[in-house]
Amino acid sequence: MTAVGDFRMLNLSKFSDSDFSEVLPAKPTFAKAAVLYTGGKKLSICGGGARSRVLGPVKAMEASTGDVLTKDCGGFSGKSKVQITTVGESSNIVWHKSSVEKSDREELLNQKGCVIWITGLSGSGKSTLACALSHALYARGKLSYILDGDNCRHGLNSNLSFKAEDRAENIRRIGEVAKLFADSGVICIASLISPYRKDRDACRALLPEGDFIEVYMDVPLQLCETRDPKGLYKLARAGKIKGFTGVDDPYEPPLNSEIVLCQRENMCNSPNALAEIVISYLERKGFAGEWQKEGSGFKAVRWNPTMMKAEISQGQVQRDRARTSLHTGLQCIT
C-alpha cells in the first residue's frame, strides 16, 4: 500500500480473493443508523454528517454486500475473463454487463421500455403527436422522453448537414440513443422525418423483437405543404432549400408499420385522440398497462381499450402489427 497525496493506493495484484476480508470490513458501517425499506417502499440512509435522503426502491438491496464484493473482486484477482471486440472503427473494446438489468429497471418504473418511431413528411404532425403522446403517458404515470429531430440537431447532431450521408448519420445516432432509453425502461418517442426505409429498418434492428413501434403519419404532400408550419416548403419551391423531402428528395413510406395514421382534409381528429390510439396499442402489447411480476419478466394485467378499431395482421417478419386508419383535417395537426 502506497500513499499518493491524500489518497492511498492498493496494489491489487498482490491480493487473492480471500485477502480482501482483511482489507475490507465484513459489513458496511455508518456513523449513524442506516434504515432500508425495500419491497417498493422508501430507502433512507444517514451516514456521517450527511443529511438523510429518500431514494426509490432498489432491488439490488436483496443481495448481500458480501456477494457484491465477491463478484467485483473476481475481476481484480484476474479470474474473470473478458472478450475484446471490434465494432466499426472502434477496436480493443469490451462490453461491460451491469448487474442491474433492463427487467429490474422496468420493475422499478412499472412499465416496459420501447421505442415509438414517428415518421412522415414535414408538416404531417409528428412533433405535435409526440408531445400529446408524452403528456398522455405522463398523466398515466408512465415515464417517456421525446427525441425530436430538430431538437437533436441543436446539440447531439449539430455538426450534421442535410446531405444524404449526414441525414443517415442523424438517424443512426438518434436510433442508438433511443435504444439506450428503451434499455433504461423508458418509453422513448422518436419524432423525425427519417425518409429512407433502410435507415428506419436499421434502427428497428437495434432493438429486441417487438420493442420498435413504427408510427407512420400518412398525410398527402399537398396537405403538408398547405400547413407548412415552418415555411420550408415555400423556401424549397423557391429553390432556396435543396434536397428537401417531398419536393426534390423522395420519402419512402413504410410498408409494414405497426400503426398508420391517415389524415385527410375532410375530417379532423385532435392530437389527443391520435395519442390515445397509440396508447391503446401500447397497453394491448403490454408496454403501458398495469404490471405484475411473472417469472423473470412482466406482463400487463389490465388494458383499457379506447374507441379504436385495429386490424391485426402478420408482417413480413412475423410481427403482430396494428394498422389503424384515421382521418384528420389540416387545422388540427401542425
Automatic annotation (TrEMBL):
UniProt KW keywords: ATP-binding, Kinase, Nucleotide-binding, Transferase
Family: Belongs to the APS kinase family.
Origin organism lineage: Eukaryota, Viridiplantae, Streptophyta, Embryophyta, Tracheophyta
Sequence ranges assigned to domain APS kinase in this UniProt record: 112-261
A Pfam family: APS_kinase
Pathway recorded for this protein: Sulfur metabolism; hydrogen sulfide biosynthesis; sulfite from sulfate: step 2/3
Gene Ontology process terms (BP): sulfate assimilation
UniProt keyword annotation of Metal-binding present: no
Function: Catalyzes the synthesis of activated sulfate.
Keyword Ribosomal protein among UniProt keywords: no
InterPro entries xrefs: APS, APS_kinase_dom, P-loop_NTPase
EC number: 2.7.1.25
Protein name: Adenylyl-sulfate kinase
Catalytic activity as recorded in UniProt: adenosine 5'-phosphosulfate + ATP = 3'-phosphoadenylyl sulfate + ADP + H(+)
Family matches, as HAMAP family: Adenylyl_sulf_kinase
SUPFAM superfamilies linked to this entry: P-loop containing nucleoside triphosphate hydrolases
Coiled coil: none
Gene Ontology molecular-function annotations: adenylylsulfate kinase activity; ATP binding
